[in-house]
Known about the structure:
The complex is a heterodimer. Chain A is of the alpha/beta class. Chain A is about 40% helix and about 15% strand.
Amino acid sequence: xxxxxxxxxxxxxxxxxxxxxxxxxxxxxxxxxxxxxxxxxxxxxxxxxxxxxxxxxxxxxxxxxxxxxxxxxxxxxxxxxxxxxxxxxxxxxxxxxxxxxxxxxxxxxxxxxxxxxxxxxxxxxxxxxxxxxxxxxxxxxxxxxxxxxxxxxxxxxxxxxxxxxxxxxxxxxxxxxxxxxxxxxxxxxxxxxxxxxxxxxxxxxxxxxxxxxxxxxxxxxxxxxxxxxxxxxxxxxxxxxxxxxxxxxxxxxxxxxxxxxxxxxxxxxxxxxxxxxxxxxxxxxxxxxxxxxxxxxxxxxxxxxxxxxxxxxxxxxxxxxxxxxxxxxxxxxxxxxxxxxxxxxxxxxxxxxxxxxxxxxxxxxxxxxxxxxxxxxxxxxxxxxxxxxxxxxxxxxxxxxxxxxxxxxxxxxxxxxxxxxxxxxxxxxxxxxxxxxxxxxxxxxx
Amino acid sequence: xxxxxxxxxxxxxxxxxxxxxxxxxxxxxxxxxxxxxxxxxxxxxxxxxxxxxxxxxxxxxxxxxxxxxxxxxxxxxxxxxxxxxxxxxxxxxxxxxxxxxxxxxxxxxxxxxxxxxxxxxxxxxxxxxxxxxxxxxxxxxxxxxxxxxxxxxxxxxxxxxxxxxxxxxxxxxxxxxxxxxxxxxxxxxxxxxxxxxxxxxxxxxxxxxxxxxxxxxxxxxxxxxxxxxxxxxxxxxxxxxxxxxxxxxxxxxxxxxxxxxxxxxxxxxxxxxxxxxxxxxxxxxxxxxxxxxxxxxxxxxxxxxxxxxxxxxxxxxxxxxxxxxxxxxxxxxxxxxxxxxxxxxxxxxxxxxxxxxxxxxxxxxxxxxxxxxxxxxxxxxxxxxxxxxxxx
Lengths: 446, 392
């Protein structure tokens, strides 16, 4: 039925207007995009081959700038996402950092070398550009090192700014593999994506006994594409098959088309490498499409938010994902950390970034204590020599690692009460290392 | 060559009916939002870029209404009724209408006498204001979402068997069942004698039982999946069916209002010739307000339904992507033309799902713009629009 209701006089050039609309859209979207936006030319695609981190030294140029020297007091800067999409992670990171600082001050009342130490926290607003300017401000204020950020995209910008000034960066939760290639000033206290992909693949194949995987990837996020690739490579190496890979874009709302395809390929497990914001609706819609509970949903540390239980509802319960740390672990470090946290904040950390922020700050402080002199360059060398640092989230060794510690990873299960501990994997259990110092795998839980 | 092979290999023909239904459902929502763009354009010759933000606010209103009804993140009442959904729908539509009217009154009306580009920039300004300003007042972090518990239809679906799988497949699955059950039972028995065992850190004997249970279970599940996909099934989720029916009803009401009421006739007159209509005694301002009420209410309804039935987390950028897609749908159908917007929306929904069906879900967003470019090349006014060039 063609109802002639309105006469319309077309505007001069519709295509131009359409283009304008798209441009307007993109302009806003970029600021909203929180992670992995705007990385540098030096960082190319996410590495998919596992276990190559020890040999990337050639890609890590040494900064030539002199960096900062401590004045009357020693300033350490932290950039955290205190507002915006990553707020829950950023807030925990800040709390963890401040807890570590308080504890360090208690243990070292005279500071380091007679100088008091101070932690200055600055907000990145979950945006890469603002993170960069926050870091630049901290550096010009005399910060010896920058601790942060929780996401790779923001960290990449901070790392670039810090490289020019010769300031070391200790990333908290940035897992993108090629991040440390930016320069020899970049370190992290978390594992990389080419570890958590294999961990989940091994778990799915060996513990869940699944052989046919379907992948769902957020093609807008380099984090997600990299993670899907590392999962796929390892799963295939173990002997499994990848029956299908479907794509979506961050902020998509309707996934029925992709899920219909996926269901037709009969996977017995589905790996969703994106962030929790899309994973929740994906899980809901998957179950509504009739993908039964016997097909488990798996993911990476992008799922780590209590909000996933609201967005996913009952559909997401019983799923597994890879995380850095879990409140319910029985290792003594975790218990001690939780007691300190509860005494200060009267609650448990909601995300894993509390523990990682604590570890990053504590490790930097300890490295500062053993540094040859109180300046950025000596601190960088000292961080580069960290061996067997007993972090809450596991042992951290940076010596000879090119900035990427061989951390342990946890697989956790989503239950109504939150994240339940399922299994811990040491690096060597998943990826047999040939070179580099091996961390002792004595930490075991349950 | 390889592309062609992939094309054939990746396609599952028995999912086509399902994908077409998916496409219609997706397109119906695009159409609902596109109607707002097209009506405002028809009357004011203005592209209301803030329309996507009205949609965003509608989703938030639905969220707050669901909180008000007791479905807060920390506590859910058990069971929900259709009345809850209707209350949320009405709240979203009413608030969106008010917001739409306010935007027109305070942002667009003062610019009406000025050049069209000034109005356009104002529209973009309002859009940005709501996106970034809204973040000051609305909860965005962590992004909240409407609980699925508010949806009484959640998880319900009706399966229509368009073609039955061969009975041999059913027999095969049935044959595997006893072995699966006995393997499972022996693993469960082992677990009950070892209550402290962690499922994922088992000693060798438990692990062997678990592996056997998993291996037999997998064979059984594979057979069952084969049975599921052996025929052609059409799964209609009740929630999506409700969404589609609601959309059709709303469009019916809109058609009635535009075609058979006095205000509708006045609206068409204003769209036909703005100044002449004013000279003939049509109260142009109230007609423009009426247009914004209709368009914004439809956006509110669309937002409430997507936010509730699809479970997407909300942010102040929630309306951005649907807004752009719906705008493309409006242009595709011929902006200013009401049936055109519906046609454009449906076409885009179908195009997107067809691409996904072909196994190219990574080009899902691109296809919308490819279709747009192709249509505009041959019909610059859009599918149902006139291609008269405007005199400036």
